[in-house]
Amino acid sequence: MLLTEKLANDIVTRAMGIIHHNVNVINSQGVIIASGEKKRIGETHEAAVEVIRCGKRITIYNENEARAYSNVAPGINHPIVVADKVELVIGVSGDPVVIQRYAELAILTAELLIQQEIERRSINWQHRLRDMLFVQFIESTTPAQGRSALLKLHNSGFAFTLPTIPVIINIEAIQYRPEILDTIITELSAMEKSDVLLLNSREILMLFPSTHYQNESFIPSLHFILDSQLSQYYIGVGVQADTQEHVRDAVHFARSVIEVGRLTVPDKQVFLFKEMASLCLFNELENSYLFNFFLDICHKILLHDSGDILLETLELFLSQNGEIGSTAQQLGIHRNTLSYRLQQIKKQTSLDPTRFTDLIQLSVAMHGYRRRYPKQQPWLDALS
Length: 384
Description:
The protein is an alpha+beta fold and 384 residues long.
């Protein structure tokens, strides 16, 4: 349906701002849905019903003629035809001899606004088609599917500006309203040099050419737009994609950093993949068959008579980036005591905390253990 209550009210407001006579907008069922006389809204306008039936203007010259219909006053009732169908009727109240010139202005205003709405919907339809094809591209699971989706995307007129950096805006489902989403997309689209795509009712994707991306300088502009419409949202910034194929991965990175960021640092609103790549990797690990292997490393430490102390020591050692001096100071113990504990960890796990490659395994193990058995994670906070 082309005519909405909002569009009808826009027509009344614009037209009456020009002609200063009452204007009614009547839908294709003959019901007044917008009027300068609010009490008439919801009435069936019988003269308009006749206009819809015959497709021609009907002029009511006086009260006697008006009495032949229900809910009708003297004035001019003109059909607005779209695709060979009367979409609405514009009624201008008053003496037709006096208001003739004004009525034409009101009708012209309505026709212009209707045409704008048709063009807007056409553009929106083209954008939604583009968005749908882009979703097919990033969700493709085989190279053949990816190439096919990419070809359709190109044929729709979309062209990547490479290299590009994807930014995803995640909207809380409870706040979703189509009109809010439309407003946000319109305002985001006005930002210079960025493509805006709607991935679904909760995700908006922006693609920024890397030449216009400098140290996340655009983020304050995003906050300004989003804060005026939403109380809660999250922003995920992916990594630079240099080819069309890499765009898909970069978008997934932007998505995953929001998912991980909300779990690990829930007080933040903006998450950058380049700063949280390790946490995203750990998140993938939790869904992997390798998870139990790393979890078992911590269980081996706990088998020691002082297992709890060794685990706490390892956790703090990780938070201090593997520095012996600062770790000993934080624990309030002698460096030799710390070295002894690290040796015990090595003995239990066959992993040396002072070797970089072994320390990586120990850090992954500690992450997995704390995910399974939650506790404050100072070393994890340091990563973020």
